[in-house]
Design brief:
The complex is a heterodimer.
Chain A (H helix, E strand, L loop, with lengths): L9 H32 L10 H9 L1 H28 L6 H24 L3
Chain B lengths: L3 E9 L9 E9 L5 H12 L18 E4 L2 E4 L11 E5 L6 E3 L2 E2 L2 H9 L21 H8 L9 H5 L1 H5 L6 H11 L7 H8 L13 H5 L6 H18 L10
Parallel strand pairs in B: 1-5
Antiparallel strand pairs in B: 1-2, 3-4, 3-5, 6-7
Helix pairs in contact in B: 6-9
Classes of the chains: A mainly alpha, B alpha+beta.
Chain lengths: ~120, ~250
């Protein structure tokens, strides 16, 4: 530990991980229930709640856009960080390759989500 | 109390004659109130005086007798032979170089301990005539838990990250660092932040939590590490917004 100390860049990734984890814990189960159970089965919510027209309108509304973007991007960053560190824990020290496969995928997913949401129009 | 026999498999490593550590078995008579440390002392007194191990207080306060008991980091004085019917395996603490038998090399931790400045650096030096630095019970409460550390290093033997890369500052040193940061009489948390936020600092931790589980003094180093991740992240993003320099 004698060499000069270098500040770690981890807070960026740890911050995204933390934010994604909090969001996943708060919204994840509810989203699975709505999109995977309630709407397809017509339980509590009408099936039409998620038809094409409704979802397009949701994705075109600035708040809807923001919600979709945040949910996709932060969930991905959370998963990437967890996978990267779990690989390290079980003895796979992939270095740059592991970083590319985890954080790289999250970054790509973020850019694609942003592009797709912009392409959907307002 | 009836006397029974337990087989103690003890790690031996004598650098002048052993290529690698190996296990030597001893049959040790024991009673229900005997600790693993007492078993080792029996071996040294009666069976093999060449066995080396560290110990001092026999009451879980000096932190000398940390070792692996059946693969789990334990204080030998606080662990009882009766809980290991038949056989017990005693090895040197994991993740440290072995000096001899059950004695590990502590240099790495000692250096880290020094780096965290484990002493109160007063916010403002007070002249003796001004009396003592006062502290309320609430202020004491904020750091009391973390001050129970006895530097026994069980948490380092438990930490998979320290095992993978010993440049990590580690659970024990971070818990102590936190203890001084949280002390109302101390004003050096910014100096210590350089170490917390460094690549060797808190972000090595992947929140396994085994360190807190093995701590014989119920310190929660995992909690100290986590709290300091938040502090280091805050420092990372807000460091440009903080005023520089000091008031005169």
């Amino acid at each position: 530990m004698n060499r000069p100390l270098k500040r770690s860049n981890a807070p960026i990734f740890w911050g995204l991980f933390g934010a994604g984890g909090m969001l996943a814990a708060l919204l994840g189960p509810m989203l699975i229930f709505i999109t995977g159970i309630a709407v397809p089965l017509g339980l509590l919510l009408p099936r039409s709640a998620m038809n094409y027209a409704a979802m397009l309108a949701f994705a075109r509304h600035p708040l809807g856009k923001g919600f979709i973007f945040i949910v996709i991007a932060l969930f991905l960053w959370h998963a990437a960080h967890r996978l990267f560190h779990s690989l390290h824990d079980i003895g796979i020290h992939g270095g740059t390759l592991a970083k590319l496969l985890t954080y790289g995928l999250a970054a790509a997913g973020t850019v694609i989500a942003a592009g797709a949401l912009l392409a959907t129009g307002f | 109390m009836t006397e029974q026999i337990i087989r103690m498999e003890v790690m031996r490593y004598r650098p002048e004659q052993d290529e690698a550590p190996w296990l030597q078995s001893f049959d040790v008579p024991y009673s229900d109130d005997m600790s693993v440390l007492q078993g080792l002392n029996y071996i040294k007194d009666e069976l093999d005086e060449s066995l080396s191990f560290r110990w001092s207080c026999r009451m879980a306060i000096c932190g000398s007798c940390g070792m692996m008991v059946d693969g789990v980091p334990k204080l030998a004085c606080k662990t009882f032979l009766r809980d290991y019917p038949g056989t017990v395996r005693v090895e040197a603490l994991h993740h440290f170089p072995i000096e001899r038998d059950l004695v590990v090399v502590l240099d790495d931790f000692m250096e880290k301990l020094e780096r965290i400045q484990p002493y109160i650096i007063p916010r403002q030096e007070q002249a003796l005539s001004e009396g003592e630095y006062l502290q309320t019970p609430t202020q004491l409460e904020r750091y009391a838990q973390f001050s129970s550390c006895i530097n026994c290093l069980l948490c380092y033997a438990a930490c998979p990250q320290y095992g993978l890369d010993s440049s990590f500052l580690g659970p024990g040193a971070i818990a102590l660092l936190h203890r001084y940061n949280m002390d109302s009489r101390d004003g050096a948390s910014e100096q210590r932040m350089e170490l917390v936020a460094a690549e060797e600092g808190v972000f090595h931790c992947t929140a396994v939590g085994y360190c807190s589980e093995v701590c014989p003094k119920h310190v929660d180093p995992a909690n100290a590490v986590n709290l300091n991740k938040t502090r280091a992240a805050g420092d990372y993003f807000l460091r440009f917004a903080k005023p520089k320099g000091r008031c005169q």
